[in-house]
Design a protein that fits this description.
Blueprint (H helix, E strand, L loop, with lengths): L16 H15 L7 E2 L2 H8 L3 H13 L3 E3 L5 E3 L8 H5 L3 H5 L24 H17 L11 H14 L9 E4 L1 H13 L5 E6 L3 H9 L3 E8 L2 E2 L1 H7 L5 E4 L13 H14 L2 E5 L24 E6 L11 E4 L5 H10 L6 H12 L2 H26 L4 E4 L2 E5 L6 H10 L5 E2 L13 E5 L5 H20 L1
Length: 471
């Protein structure tokens, strides 16, 4: 009897036969071709059908069992494990427009109170940015009409390298820095360079939902790895998917919980990547914008063998409207990133890059960061106090305050009601990849919680939550 799911082996591929079998069966389970309870051929029978050694199939089955995708019942055979009912892909990404898009969408073209992921709109250095951008546009119009440097303006790359050395403890050359149109473009470039399709990646659980969706689009099998008080649980990751070739982490301030990856976990993660030949993508989305004490050095600063791909952005520190980010490529990958950027994802237009470079070179950037840290710390303290006065339990989580909700609460329903009331908190539950692990909560952005509005907003939020709990 032939397998009832597509399983083709390529003996010329670099991927091992064990991993090809594991991926083929796993894909059939994920797609629904193999449903929960379906019986698999014995590993002896499948080995005979595929023309491979029995031990090869047995090891593939063991990996699937370790990932809790199949279960062996001895003489009763091996079956597909029970799994949560799969929703439509668009529902898995966006349970409701308000649930996730509240993190990105700005009602009426302005940031709402409690909106996360955006800087303080009332503290944006508009005059300085406007002056620098006007000057950069004028300069751009006077140069010869030639293709700009695809990896980014060398002046901006030089400023970033200098800033990283001081603020993030990283020593890198200008050639290692690739300018991108934000984190999404950086992640897309990384997927191309690593040829990540059909590979397996660890992702944090809870973790950024858009990262998971980006991996799905790229054909990557994302394995959720739990996060605890020390950050991503590396040992659990090695048990769940020891064959993974990629890990995407937020070690500086874990998104969304705000945990800083401990030194022991950092060393453990880098050691895993070194031993297994895997890559680590460090999403340094907040950089040194740490509200309590000094920010920990970048994970890449501890990397002796060049296994960490560092990704930074100016979205939280200046403005997401710039669409400006960067990659620090490990030395072995510089040439590959340079070619990929040239052919697929060149840097943004020169004017915005030159304005950002001037903003850094003239000292505005460091002064702006210092102001924002003081402002956000005051708003965090004011928000936590206002929440406490209304009976909420809130604690800092990066640039957000995380509000706990009862297990029976629907944070997505509360968010929809809050949006209708002019507020834009984000639901915690949608950050979890595994529904069984999800817990309800609200993420309230600190940057948009201005002192003159926060008490009234917390009172209104109390009404919204109480009303939703009675429904």
């Amino acid at each position: 009897m032939r397998p009832v799911f597509p399983l083709q082996l390529d003996r010329t591929a670099k991927t091992s036969l064990v991993e090809q079998i594991r991926h083929g069966i796993g894909a059939a389970i994920h797609s629904g071709v193999l449903r929960p309870g379906a019986r698999l051929p014995s590993w002896q029978a499948l080995a005979s059908q595929l023309g491979v050694a029995r031990g090869t199939v047995r090891e593939a089955y063991e990996r699937l069992a370790d990932a809790q995708m199949i279960v062996s019942a001895g003489s009763a055979g091996t079956h597909v494990a029970a799994r949560p009912v799969k929703r439509r892909t668009e529902d898995a990404l966006l349970p409701d427009e308000s649930d996730l898009l509240a993190m990105r969408r700005s009602p009426n073209g302005a940031a709402s109170i409690f909106q996360i992921g955006v800087p303080a709109p009332d503290a944006f250095p508009a005059k300085v940015i406007a002056r620098l951008r006007t000057r950069a546009v004028r300069e751009e119009a006077t140069v010869a009409p030639l293709y700009p440097e695809t990896c980014g303006d060398v002046v901006l790359r030089r400023e970033i390298a200098a800033h990283l050395a001081i603020a993030r403890g990283m020593v890198c050359s200008v050639e290692q820095i690739i300018i991108t149109s934000g984190f999404g473009a950086a992640l897309g470039l990384i997927m191309h360079v690593l040829r990540a399709g059909r590979q397996t990646a660890w992702v944090e659980d809870p973790g950024f939902p858009y990262t998971r969706e980006a991996l799905r689009i790229a054909g990557v099998n994302a394995v959720p790895v739990p996060v605890d008080r020390e950050g991503i649980d590396v040992e659990r990751g090695m048990r769940l998917a020891p064959w993974a070739t990629l890990a995407i982490v937020t070690p500086g301030q874990q998104a969304p919980l705000g945990t800083t990856l401990t030194l022991s976990r950092r060393l453990q993660l880098i050691d895993w990547a070194s031993r297994s030949g895997a890559w680590i993508v460090e999403d340094d989305y907040l950089g040194e914008l740490q509200l309590s004490g000094r920010a920990a050095p970048a994970l890449a600063s501890l990397d002796p063998e060049g296994r960490v791909i560092h990704v930074g952005s100016f979205s939280k520190t200046i403005s997401p409207a710039l669409r400006l980010g960067f990659i620090v490529a490990p030395p072995p990958l510089v040439a590959a990133f340079t070619v990929a950027a040239h052919c697929l994802l060149p840097a943004p237009g020169p004017a915005v890059q030159r304005a950002a470079a001037a903003f850094m070179r003239e000292g505005h950037y460091l002064r702006h960061l210092r102001r924002m840290k003081r402002l956000y710390a005051r708003r965090r303290d004011g928000l936590i106090a206002a929440l406490d006065a209304k009976g909420f339990s809130g604690r800092q989580a990066g640039l957000s305050v995380l509000v706990d909700l009862p297990d029976s609460a629907s944070d997505t329903a509360i968010v929809r009601a809050a949006l209708a009331s002019g507020m834009a908190p984000a639901p915690l539950s949608v950050w979890y990849a595994l529904p069984d692990n999800a817990r309800p909560g609200l993420l309230l952005g600190v940057s948009t919680a201005s002192s003159e509005r926060v008490e009234a907003a917390c009172a209104l939020l109390r009404q919204v939550v109480d009303t939703a709990s009675r429904l």
